[in-house]
## 1
Amino acid sequence: MAGIDLEGAILAASMKSATNAKVKIAIDGALAVKGWMDEHGAFDNAPRLASLCGQTASESGGYQSSIERLRYSAKRLRQVWPRRYKTLEMAEEYAHQPKKLANHTYANRNGNGPPESGDGWRYRGRGWIMLTGRANYRRLGKALGRDLINEPDLARDPAIAWQIAVEFFISRKRKGRTVMEWADIGDTEMVTLIINGGRHGLKDRIARTGLAAMALARAEALGP
């Protein structure tokens, strides 16, 4: 893609100042594996790269966190997981208890064992795309040649986190199309459904993707 401005797209999607230290870490991580990302199709077109930046920025709070903290109030739990926490009373049992919350919320899903296995906490969201679940850690780790099962914190490495995000875009499908293919046609809602499992933060994802797209368009207009 001519005139690509990876740094500018990440910065725009972050909605942060250019002096933000954590955004700089995310940018440096991407630049460290820029060749790898290019080889794996991340830069094939502007909508795809804009989506990658917009989604990862939204998942990580503008690249301010590479791990899921899970410090929710009962009210917030009802908003984020209304099907799992159907009453305020139930949510109050897990509010402000990250480990207990993770082990309950993510139990018996995405390859995780029951709550007592500790898988929910061990394989909670990490990286720029917030990789979650034992099965996803195993699958993405195998694809990248990384032992994410025994070393889950590798998913927080700034460069590896970008590789995980790209590989996720390549490999995950819904309705016969990969995340990348949905991104190519600008369907942010479908991309969000695959990544998030719902529509959580859809407006934010649309906004961040749009900002990244504008940064890429400016770079394209300026040329190489």
## 2
Amino acid sequence: MATIYKTKVGKQGRIVLPRDIRDAFGVDPGDEVTIIVKGRELTLRLQKAPEDPLEDLTKLADTVSIGLPAKKLKERADEERQRAFPKR
């Protein structure tokens, strides 16, 4: 059975998700919502913001093949930063 919620669109086109929905889905500030348009139907998909964006990027980097693993890329980036930093 579907639950129906009614909300108004604000002056800048914003909508507010009712508290029941935010609580049920754990919606927090910073989470992203993808809007899918199919004909005259809108579907919202929630994408939780990562708790640790760097860890998220590291996992993503492991899936991208550019010849070096993420750990090696980080080591090289650290070395480059050290070389670029002026020594006293």
## 3
Amino acid sequence: MARSRQEISAEREREQEQSLARVEQGGIPVSAERRLRESSEQGGAFSSDLSIAGWALAHRLGLRPLSQVMGSSIYQIGYQMQAWPMTMGGNVLSELSTLSEAWNEVRRLALNRLELEARHAGADAVIGVQVRTGAHDWAQGSIEYVLTGTAVRRREGQRAQEPVLTELSVADYSNLLSAGIRPLGIVAWTSVFYAAYGAFWPAQAGGFGGVGAMGNFELPEFTAAVYSAREQVMGRLGVQAQRLGASGIVGVRIGHTVRRQDTGGAGAQQRGGVVVTFDAIGTAVADTPTAQPQPPKITIDLST
């Protein structure tokens, strides 16, 4: 018996409410879970972001692409309660913990949803994970984090209990497995620091009879901010890798941005500085008892 329009509309509304509740709890919408499960159970055509060469290599290596999977989150940044340096005598370097926490939480939500999609697709791993971040003018003070990759399943061997997320290409993923090295998952962190101009910066710049605005000199506060953010990030990556039982991290991608930020009121109360955002993401790996070092191959070019 055919359903009425009212029944169809009511069902859609219920599904939208369920999807919103799942997203609020860190999950994925009902429609995404249903599509991935049906694809896993019924088979059929798949979508992926693999290149033609990557797909052909996966086929030869015994990796079956299942589906393109995604993890996404749009996150509102809260107010930075920590006092910003307001006077020339204040601290010149401090972490903006609210911004750091926002970036790390939005990534955690996106990674969790990526793993959920891979699990519903019946994947052993997700390879080639790509990251896109940004902000939108229609949501002031918000940030977006999007992860996409291809869920794959090994045609032979023991199935993984949980899908392993990696940034590795098809070739790199296969090379690690063939060498007896096991990918364990993605590790990542972001740290945001604020650095104000030092108390004697005007003298360096020539304002107090210094070397002159045209002279060469380092801005040590800004250099220190980059180093401080980097050390924070690398330390966190090491902790995450240890929790996974990793022996190392491969394929680490590092990025950082520096933007001007003035604080305080007008005139003498205003203070200039920069905000440094430093992030890194990579794949944790571990050696296995079957790991064997491969001797180098000798190649002689006979064309000359």
